[in-house]
């Protein structure tokens, strides 16, 4: 046990590698899979060690839950499994290493549920004035944790998609697409939201209108953008559902290209919310859902989640240099502005290393 702790401590003092999205794209070919495997064998333990150590900076009330212990054990176990696996030296080693990190990625898939369970009690206590510092600390640690988690899953997913030939077009390598089209991804997100909402609320009449530039193409990770748009548009849909109105409603999505950003504006007329809530919506300790977490988890079909969707969406945009801003007019509706950074070829994505 002491050896494990000392090994995590040693790797947590090492610095993760600075990466460029364009660089990852350029080496994202079958010919470079051995190089990718060797890099991941060295890099992943460093990133896992940083997060494993940081989990113990959370308050004792969270650390002592069995759910947080599950997360810690999962990270520590993954750290050990990679370090104890032989370093890939030739092409025949690639498959075994890929199977290992694929299994690790799969085991980490539902980790957010354990995080949500571990902090559920804090949601009811941390918004008291005297707990402001505690709330900020929890959000800061979880933001860093999720940012790194996104990076780890992206690096593993990028490697596995190249190994398994998941490229869908000539401009896509692994998970990265040089011709990522926000308009098409918005259409896909809306299609999935319609399907889900019709299963639960078939009587709700919502019209989704996409405006703006249909022909924008830029270097990005489509799966990340899909997550962001799905969560933001789903939130607007849920807000309209909560009105219990028989009237028809619209959700407008406007997509434009600026000098430095792709801007996507999502607008609804669901009544908005007060200014004091605007300060809370990105916090992992806040949720607009009235359902208890265990009730949500045990449902076969879930529309409103466990309170992490908006916070995670912002982290996904931050991960590649973007951001999300929200302006809500109480009594009218809410406008969400998504800024997706247009990434230069030589730009280092510093958030990879958080």
What is the fold's blueprint, element by element?
Elements: H1 2-12, H2 21-26, H3 33-55, H4 60-63, H5 66-84, H6 91-107, H7 111-119, H8 132-163, E1 172-173, E2 176-180, H9 182-200, E3 206-212, E4 218-220, H10 222-241, E5 249-257, E6 261-268, H11 275-278, H12 293-297, H13 309-319, E7 323-329, E8 333-341
Parallel strand pairs: 3-5
Antiparallel strand pairs: 1-2, 2-4, 5-6, 6-8, 7-8
Helix pairs in contact: 1-3, 3-5, 3-6, 3-8, 5-6, 5-7, 6-8, 8-13, 9-10, 10-13
CATH superfamily of the largest domain: Alpha-ketoacid/pyruvate dehydrogenase kinase, N-terminal domain
Annotated CATH architecture of the largest domain: Up-down Bundle
Number of domains: 2
The major pleated sheet works out as: 5 strands, mixed
Structure summary, number of beta strands: 8
The string of secondary-structure elements, in order, is: HHHHHHHHEEHEEHEEHHHEE
> How much of the sequence is in beta strands?
5-15%
Shape: globular
Low-confidence stretches: 350-354
The helical percent reads 40-55%
Instruction: Give the N-terminus to C-terminus distance in angstroms.
Output: 27 Å
Q: What's the CATH class of the largest domain, please?
A: Mainly Alpha
**Structural class designation:** alpha+beta
Q: Which fold name corresponds to the CATH topology of the largest domain?
A: Butyryl-CoA Dehydrogenase, subunit A, domain 3
Mean pLDDT: 88
Family: Belongs to the PDK/BCKDK protein kinase family.
Catalytic activity: L-seryl-[pyruvate dehydrogenase E1 alpha subunit] + ATP = O-phospho-L-seryl-[pyruvate dehydrogenase E1 alpha subunit] + ADP + H(+)
Organism: seawater metagenome
EC number: 2.7.11.2
């Amino acid at each position: 046990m002491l050896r494990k702790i000392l090994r995590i401590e040693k790797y947590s003092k090492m610095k993760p590698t600075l990466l460029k999205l364009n660089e990852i794209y350029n080496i994202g070919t079958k010919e470079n899979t051995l190089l990718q495997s060797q890099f991941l064998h060295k890099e992943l333990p460093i990133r896992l060690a940083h997060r494993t150590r940081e989990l113990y900076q959370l308050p004792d009330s969270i650390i002592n839950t069995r759910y947080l212990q599950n997360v810690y054990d999962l990270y520590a176990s993954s750290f050990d499994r990679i370090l104890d696996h032989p370093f890939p030296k030739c092409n025949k080693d690639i498959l075994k290493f890929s199977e290992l990190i694929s299994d690790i990625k799969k085991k980490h898939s539902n980790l957010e549920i354990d995080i949500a369970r571990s902090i559920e009690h804090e949601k009811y206590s941390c918004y008291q004035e005297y707990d402001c510092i505690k709330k900020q600390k929890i959000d800061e640690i979880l933001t860093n944790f999720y940012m790194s988690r996104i990076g780890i899953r992206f690096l593993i997913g990028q490697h596995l998609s190249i190994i398994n030939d998941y490229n869908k077009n000539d401009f896509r390598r692994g998970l990265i697409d040089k011709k990522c089209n926000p308009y098409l991804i918005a259409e896909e997100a809306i299609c999935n939201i319609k399907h889900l909402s019709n299963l639960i609320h078939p009587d709700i009449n919502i019209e989704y209108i996409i405006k703006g530039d249909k022909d924008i193409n830029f270097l990005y990770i489509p799966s990340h953008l899909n997550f962001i748009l799905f969560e933001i548009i789903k939130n607007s849909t849920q807000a309209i559902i909560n009105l219990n109105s028989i009237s028809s409603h619209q959700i407008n999505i406007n997509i434009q290209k600026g000098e430095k950003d792709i801007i996507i504006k999502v607008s609804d007329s669901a009544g908005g919310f007060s200014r004091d809530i605007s300060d809370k919506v990105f916090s992992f300790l806040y949720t607009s859902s009235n359902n208890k977490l265990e009730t949500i988890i045990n449902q076969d079909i879930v529309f409103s989640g466990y309170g992490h969707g908006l916070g995670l969406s912002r982290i996904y945009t931050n991960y590649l240099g973007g951001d999300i801003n929200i302006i809500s007019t109480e009594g009218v509706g809410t406008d969400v502005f998504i800024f997706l950074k247009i990434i230069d070829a030589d730009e280092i994505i510093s958030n990879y290393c958080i």
